[in-house]
Each structure stands twice: as structure tokens, then as C-alpha cells.
Amino acid sequence: MKLRYQSYAKAWTEALPIGNGRLGAMVFGEPEVEHLQLNEDTLWSGRGPVDGNNPNAKHVLAEVRELLAEGRYEEADKKSKGMMGPYNQSYMPLGDLYLKFLHGGVVRAYERNLDLTNAITQVEYRIGDIVYKREMFASFPDGVIVIRLEASAPGALNFTARLDSPHPYRTIQTAEHLFLQGICPEHVDPNYYNRDEPVLYGDPETTEAMRFEGRLGVRLEDGAATLDHDGLHIRKATAVTLIFSAETSFQGFDKPPAREIGDLSSTNEERLEQALSKSYEQLRQAHIQDYTALFHRVELNLGASEASEGMPTDRRIKQYGAKDAGLVELLFQYGRYLLIASSRAGSQPANLQGIWNKELRPPWSSNLTLNINAEMNYWLAETCHLSECHEPLLGYIQNLSTNGRKTAETNYGCRGWVAHHNGDIWCQSAPVGDYGQGDPVWALWPMSGAWLSQHLWEHYAFTKNETYLREHAYPIMREAALFCLDWLHTDENGHLITSPSTSPEHKFVTADRQKAGVSQATTMDMSLIWDLFTNSIEAVDVLKRAEDASLRDEMAAALEKLKPMQIGKHGQLQEWSVDWEDEDVHHRHVSHLFGIYPGRQLTEQGTPELYQAARNSLERRGDGGTGWSLAWKICLWARFQDGNRTLQLISNLLQLVEEDATNYHRGGVYANLFDAHPPFQIDGNFGFTAGVAEMLVQSHAGEIALLPALPDAWPNGYVKGLRARGAIGVSLSWESGALKEAEVEAQVGGSCRIRTKEILLTVESDGEPVPFERVTEGVIRFDTEAGRTYKLRSV
């Protein structure tokens, strides 16, 4: 469970990430000049909330619908540009911490690593006979980044620490702290949108943009420390603890950033002083205790590792890839590590790069991309026993819905709430595109409310927390459903359809060679609305909401009238309501397969023909793709219960991508195991981990399937601590490709259905047999009691 390297990081995608949900750092590990690139999760461009709603969209909507009804798709594409709003803002880097050492000399026995079992990154090397060690971690309990420096010889540590930032800033030194204070841009254009002044700063004294402070303190055990305008100087020390804390003027998604720096500076100083009052061992133990309580919930063993002990991770990727079961385990747990590091209680949700970004104009603004990527970030949260890490996204959805109510009314004249393709820290809910500069194939997509609502329901499905469902999830789901009921309208055949409608980022080609993105009733739209209505109806039933009986009936009636899915001329599940040709048959998005994963509409038992058509669609897409696209395909092939094909996709993902790679259509991983779109996006890491869990346990179809997609290459192994819907913990072991034993831990109790390929012979709890019934071939059912664990054994 270590990422290991025998040289320091020469590129950002070789550096190692640490994080506590709010603060993040990329650690490079150079002996002579250590570099930590720093982030804080509320540091965004912009001057606060912006009303990006477009009152003209209502009028354009009627014209676009008329054009689409007449089959004039290219014209509808152009006309729909009039429905867009402004681009949203970008996630910003905070700055850099540099430690320049004065030891010089020839470096020997160098190693750096990131230990996933304790979330500590280490650097160790020798110069002459002196061994130098560094330990670095981001502490959630203390809210700071901790850097421990040690030398094996007394007084051998001599270095200077310096803070820097890409933003306008000033550095200040007091008798105890080194710190910088800076400002963010008032506006940053997306990296794909080119204007003469894409980054705009205000006056440092009067700007309305975000302000920030980074503060460094030192705890000496011997030696001396001095501070001046050049930095923090440490001389003749043997062991030193540096602590970094940061704060921004963010006051909430619905408020502009604070104009004064005094409050944030005092908060930052207090946090730093509290951390400095503790010994390094106290800070370290608090960090480990907090982190391991989450990380150690899940264990995975896929069999013997191909690589030798201590083999550098970059060489391991290049030499073995997915043939090394131990490397697959490492990448699986790395996804869990990254979610813990980038999404904790009180933090912002993990964005397109988690919390790690060095660019003023990061790829795709490093925002929350809501047509797949933000959702993929959290697919692993419930199945991989990190439900608490889901909470930042769930809170964000609530904030987004607040803004989305105004967008629904202003842009479309609809009830409820709506949001589109992109979100930022200010929870912009209007479609982006700079009022017509964007492409409707991605900008004009009012379905993120429906997709995000699935996360609200899934959190309930995995926890069975009715208070949460009643007070938080259902009210937001209800309003998302109200929007969809108003957005739907009846076509000439009596079906309910959406119009305009897109299949995100993928265009179609009509029989008369029109190429466009906007049409009617895409399969993804219909699947998302089916999912939202189905979940909302179940929520009404669970909560026994008599006051919503009529709404329940309305949703149930709408479900019956939704335009049905269709099978096209290639035997594929159609992506659009007409059997058009794909602009790109190998397109990275597989939006029309939402009903397979992460949805539950299409199953082998319930909808066999559409299930097979969906599989045919995935075959046609091929096994290539960007990093996150490969991760989605891993999840899909797991749902199709094809373990060997799933492993092939894992093999495609575990390809080493060089830093300067320019192929945007072939994903993989960088040397530090970050997902390569390329460039870096974290969603592929999270999607991969979710996919591996899905290979071992599935629970979307009203039963818990054990080892549904186990590949031949993993004949022996075990997993402990996965979660299933129904508030159930699942652990299991297998030998020679067959289930050996499983444990089911019932958190709330109730009926439990288990599907296996083997015949289950015994179910017992506390050593006593438990009666069960065989429902169908391969499926048994038994009753559980809250707090009890049940052991299942096969032949």
C-alpha cells in the first residue's frame, strides 16, 4: 500500500498528493529544494454570486422546439445558443512552499513514498554518512499541513523556507510566522475560451475577489530560527516541525467574498498557534487515528503480486500494468485515499482535479462538471464505505438547488429547480457559454438536477437514514421532479419527451447529413427522468407523505408515458430518439447507457432485450477512451457481469502516460497514479475504484450479487467492508474462482436477498443456523436483525 519512487518528481504528475479535504499539497521531494504546491478548496476566481440567468431563454425555447419538431436540427442548434448564460469561474492554486537546503553533496539511497495506510508521504536520502528524512501529511483534526524534517547527525539541518504565489501577494514576517497575503482574479475564462484578457485582477486594496492568506510556523527542538524578508531560516537543527495553515475570505456560495483580511488572518493565526502548541507526535497520532478510522474499513486482496517488494511504482505500471494484481489493489485503495483527502465534512466537494491544481487557467476550469465527472467522483463513496465523504457533494446539491429555482423560473418558466453542465463554488445553475459562444451539445443540458438527485437517494439507500431522507434529500428530489414534470411535453404519439435535448458532448448525423447536438428525447434524458421519478416515488412511500399522494400519482403516470427506449439498426440501444449515425462511434461519453450504470433501469432479469442492446452499444464504442471514459466502461462491463472484459479495460487504464502526452483520446495513469484524461482529471481514479467494487458486489437490482464479474486472472482473494444498499456490510472470500464464504452485516435489519453463481448451503448467525428460502436459481432470501452478522457458505 505504498506508492514508491527512487527519484524526486520532475513534473507535477510525478509529485505525491496529500490533503485534508480543505488543504491540499503536491509534494515533489527534491533533496536540494523541496517543493510543496499548495491549494485551499474555497480559493476560486470571481467576485461572488452572479445572476447568470437568461430571461430571453423562455422566448428562444419555443422557437427551438418548433424547429426540432420540423426536423431542422442545424437551425435549432444555432438558435439555442440564445439560451446560454456566462461561463462560470475557475478553481485557483494558492501558492508554493520551497525549502532550500544547504547540505549540498552527492545524494545516495534516495526514496520517496506515499503510504496509503497512514496518509503520510516520506522522503529519505543520504549525503555522506548523514541520513535526511522528511514526513509530510495534511491533518483533518488540526486543519493544517505538517512537515517533519530530521537529520541523523546533530545540527545537520540548515535550510530556508520561502512562500510564493502565482497571484498578486505580499509577504510578511513576524517574530514567529512567515506568511503571504494575496488576491484572486475577479474573472478567469475557461482554458478553451480565448480572449485578449482571459485573467482579470482587481486593485489589491479594493478588489471584490477572493482574498487569502498562507501562514508558516516552526516548532524547533534544537538549533535556531530567524525570519526576514527572504524567508524562514533554520540553522544547526536536528529535528524541525513546520506547520502550514491557510484561510480564504469565502463566506458562502450566496455571498461575495469578505472585503477585509483581518478576520481570516486572525482565524488562520489561531489555527496555526493551536497546532504549534502540540508536539509532532501528538499531531501525527491525531492524524493517523482520524484517517485510519475511514481508510481501514475496506481491505482488498486479489492474489499474489507480480512485482518484487519495493519496486518503484512508475516501473511497476510500465512493466506489469493490470497483470500485477497488487497494483490493481493499490490503485483501488488510492481512489479511496484521494476521496478522503479531497472530500471531508465541511469541505467543498471534490472538483475535476480533487483539490490539487497548479494552473491559473486549469483544464476545463477545474470546476464541477455535472454531466458525468462530478457524479463519477462520488460513485465509490457509498459502496466503498466512505459515506461521510459523500456529504460535501450532498450539501453542494442543496446549495445548487437554491440557485436552480430561480433559473428554472427565469429561463424556462418551470417549477422546481434546474442546473446544467457546469458548476462552481458560487453554485451557478444557468447554462454556461458566454451568451452564445459555447456549443449547445454540452452547454444546453438541463438534466444535472436529475442526475445529482440520484446521489441524494443513493445516500439514503445505503444508510436507510429516514431523518436524512425526510429533512434533506426528498425536498430537493421533489423539486427536481417538479422541474422535469414541467419540462416534459407530449409529442404527436402521446409520449412525454424532452425538447431541446442533448446526449452530452456527442453529436448525431442525420440521413440528410445534418450534424447537430440538439434534438428531442435523448435516451439519457429519458433514463435520468425515469431514475428521478422512480426514486422519488419510493421516497414518498418510505416517508408516507400523504400530502404528496397526487404528486406521486403524477410521477407514476408520467413514467408510463415517457418515450420508450428503442433498439437501432445495429442492434444497439439508440442514443437518440431517431436511429441516426454517430458523429464518432468511439465517442468517450456513453450517456445513453446510464440505465445500466449508475442507474438501475436496465437489468438482465427485468429488461433482457434492452440490456442486450445496451451491451451491443458498449461493444460498438470499443475499449479505448480517455481516463474517465475507461473508468465508466469498467463500471459498465462489471454490470454486464463480464469480468474478463472488465479486466481488459482495467489493463487499458493502467498504461503509463508521460507528462508531455498530447493524445487526448487515449487515457491511462501518470507516474503518481493520477488519472490521465489526458491531462489530469481525478474522476478516473474514483470511477476505477467504484468499478472494482462493482465487480465484487452489486446491489442495484433488489438483491446483493456476490462476485458478479470476477475475472479468471483473480482466482483467489478476499474483500472486507464493502457496502450494499439496505445498510448492509459485505465481506467475502473466494478460491479457484468460486465463492468460499461471505459475511453480511445488517445495520437496520429486514429481508435480505443474495444472488450467487454457487449454491449456498448454510446461513448462520452467532453459530446458529438461520432459515432461508431459495427464491429462484442462484437467489436465496432470509430475514435479518439489526446489528447481527450472517455467515454464508457455499459447496
UniProtKB/TrEMBL annotation:
<feature type="domain" description="Alpha fucosidase A-like C-terminal">
    <location>
        <begin position="698"/>
        <end position="792"/>
    </location>
</feature>
<dbReference type="InterPro" id="IPR013780">
    <property type="entry name" value="Glyco_hydro_b"/>
</dbReference>
<keyword id="KW-0378">Hydrolase</keyword>
<dbReference type="Pfam" id="PF21307">
    <property type="entry name" value="Glyco_hydro_95_C"/>
</dbReference>
<dbReference type="InterPro" id="IPR016518">
    <property type="entry name" value="Alpha-L-fucosidase"/>
</dbReference>
<feature type="domain" description="Glycosyl hydrolase family 95 catalytic">
    <location>
        <begin position="279"/>
        <end position="696"/>
    </location>
</feature>
<dbReference type="InterPro" id="IPR027414">
    <property type="entry name" value="GH95_N_dom"/>
</dbReference>
<dbReference type="Pfam" id="PF14498">
    <property type="entry name" value="Glyco_hyd_65N_2"/>
</dbReference>
<protein>
    <submittedName>
        <fullName>Glycoside hydrolase N-terminal domain-containing protein</fullName>
    </submittedName>
</protein>
<dbReference type="InterPro" id="IPR008928">
    <property type="entry name" value="6-hairpin_glycosidase_sf"/>
</dbReference>
<dbReference type="Pfam" id="PF22124">
    <property type="entry name" value="Glyco_hydro_95_cat"/>
</dbReference>
<dbReference type="GO" id="GO:0016787">
    <property type="term" value="F:hydrolase activity"/>
</dbReference>
<dbReference type="InterPro" id="IPR049053">
    <property type="entry name" value="AFCA-like_C"/>
</dbReference>
<feature type="domain" description="Glycosyl hydrolase family 95 N-terminal">
    <location>
        <begin position="3"/>
        <end position="251"/>
    </location>
</feature>
<dbReference type="InterPro" id="IPR054363">
    <property type="entry name" value="GH95_cat"/>
</dbReference>
